[in-house]
Each structure stands twice: as structure tokens, then as C-alpha cells.
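Help wanted!
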Amino acid sequence: MSIPFSPHIRAVHSPPISEVKGWLATRPDIGLELIDLCQAVPDYPPAPELVTHLATLLDDPLTSKYSPDEGLPEVLAAVCETYRRKYGAQLEPDNLCLTIGASQAFWLAIVTLCQAGDEVVVQSPYYFDHAMALDMLGIRGVYAPFDEASAGLPSPAVIAALITAKTRAILLVSPSNPTGAIIPPETLQELYSLAQCRNIALILDETYNEFIPGGVRPHDLFTRPGWGEHFVQLASFGKTFALTGYRAGLLAASRQFIQHALKVQDSMAVCQPRITQHAVRFGLEHLDAWVAANREMMARRHDLFRAEFMQPGNPFRLSASGAFFAWVRHPWPELTGRQAAKRLVDETAILCLPGEVFGSGLEGYLRLAFGNIREEAIPEAVRRFRKMAA
Ligand SMILES: Cc1ncc(COP(=O)(O)O)c(C=O)c1O
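Answered by r_m:
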């Protein structure tokens, strides 16, 4: 007899990336090099000057110690300065908590806001880790359906209709994982007003915000008087500075919100690792040009990917794309997304994610992280899709 596990955890699917990467162990050798469009990881290393800087800190005994739960004051100050330039925000350090990736920022936000039985309205297709966390916590995700005509952008009217007395938050991701769609500032403004009027939170995950073409300001929400009463932002430095393994995230919210969230932080992780904090500070203070160059490179990857993928004769259809991702319809109505993705890895050595991990009813789609591969590798990747029989 084995110990019983929580029914919530048993009901949650295993991590999709691990599942899909697990297929590699049994795939047939077809003589093609693998093209990995699965987990979103920039292919390039961190900036060399950042790595050199971190190396100088390893001898310092302080580097291996805890920091305050919210992070080191000088790192929080660097975030405030960056947010002033990027968002026009007048943040104070007590509006912030550095976290173990945007992933942990999400947990802080949700545990601070919700209890089991509450509801969160989530735009589909959603980021699967969000849905997994809600399920584990016994919080009901209420999913706004994917609308292909609007490339998955949220509709304030649809979202408004899903809000009930149990709703605690609206959860959005922009740029979206998986569609790449960038929510226009006016729509965010409308959704913020909706959250304000229903007295719930607008949680916005901006993990990919540095890949918005042109580096334009994603929104003005931080400039609204009293913004923190209804707005909570999750951010990641992992993709921005190619530091996904450093687990570098951020929660930005009202002072009161952060005070409660720090209870979660303390019991969950205590603090973001100090070495990560130094990396974040260095990046924010020294790497604007490096980040901008990568943003431009990503935009070129996107343009090339779209141009190649949309040439006539491709049995796959581009449904939406942007920032780091393409969301495509596969040509096999009889196959689920899992079966289609498995077929692609077995027959043409392309690894990607099945649509259904981003929401139910999305078996006809696949997510491709074109941001993972260099520009010169894109034509070959697209050629492999085009050669598949419909
Ligand atoms: C939308 C979204 N949020 C959060 C994360 C997690 O980011 P981090 O690595 O900073 O935890 C990801 C990672 O892929 C993501 O796509």
C-alpha cells in the first residue's frame, strides 16, 4: 500500500516539456539533426561581460549568503530605474520582489490573491504552467476561448462575461506564449478598467516583453494613479538576458500586495539567489544595447520564419505569431497535437509542443519556438514542415 497523494496533484498532467523531450529517447535515427523548437530558450549565451562580472563575485563570501527576501536594495533600485525608462513607472523598491523566475512570481501572486475555490479568468491558449499551478491549488481556471480570427488576443467583452462573484483575477500573457500575440496597450487599458470596476486583479505576465519589436512601451498601466490596487505584473529576466537557468524573475505590485507576497516568498524560497541578483543588476545597468540587438535579431527571425512558412504549398497553416513563437495548425485532422508533434519528431526531427497543452480543444495546433534557432537555420526548419505530406 502506498501513501495517498493529493487529488489536486494527481489530476495535473506531467510537465509537457519533459514529456515531449522524453520522446527523443525512442525516436528513430533518420539521419537528420534535431531542430528543437520545443522549450523557449534563446540559443545565444549571456553577454560575455556579464559572465566576466559574475566570475569576479564568486570569491566574495557574501555572494553565497541569503539576501533580504525581496532582494538586494541596489538591485531593486536598478529595477526601479529601468521601469522608469521602460514604463514611465514611479516604482519604489517596496513595490518589488525578486523571484525564482517569473514562474515563482506567478505563485506569489496567486497565493497572495486566491484561496481554494476561487476563480481566475485566463485567456486561452494559456501558458500551461499557470493552469497547472491553479489546478494544484484548487483554484478554478475559467478559460476565455481562443479566437483564431483575432489571433488569440483577449476580448474585454468575453472576459467580462466570465467574471463571477468568485473571480479574483484576470490572467494575461503578453507577448503570448504560445501565440506570440502582443496585446495592444488600449486593450490592456480596457482590461485594467474592467478589473478595477469589478475589484479584481489584472495579472499580466510579461516574460517576453523585451522581444516586442522596436522596444516600444508595452503599456501605460504603471502610470495610472493607484495602479497597484488592481494591477500585478510578472516579469522575467531569463529570456531578456539569456539567463533562463539563473531563474531570474520579478513581481511588481502595490506595497501592500508585496508585503503579503513576501510571506509566500519567505516560506517558499527566502530569496532569489544572490548571484542571480548580481546578474540582473549588471544586465539592467549595462546591457541595453545587447538586449536591443537581440530584440532586432528576434524580429528578423520572425520576419524570415513568416515569409518562409507562408509561401504557398505548406500543408501547415500559420495561425498567429510574434516575439518568440509561432502557433500553427497541423494538416492532420485525425491526429491530436501530441500525435502530430510525435510524427514530426519521428519523421523530420523537429521537436515542438502540441496545442492541447495550452488549452482543451486545441489539438489541431502546434507551438513552434522559432526564437530558439538562428536565422540561418530557419529555412531548413520550415523546409521540413513543407515536405510533410498533408
Ligand atoms: C509566459 C511565461 N511565463 C513564465 C515563464 C517562466 O519564466 P521563468 O523562466 O522566468 O520562470 C515562461 C517560460 O517559458 C513563460 O513562457
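OP: Thanks! One thing I noticed: Residues 40, 101-103, 127, 173, 177, 205, 207, 236, 238, 244, 249 surround pyridoxal-5'-phosphate (CB under 6 Å).
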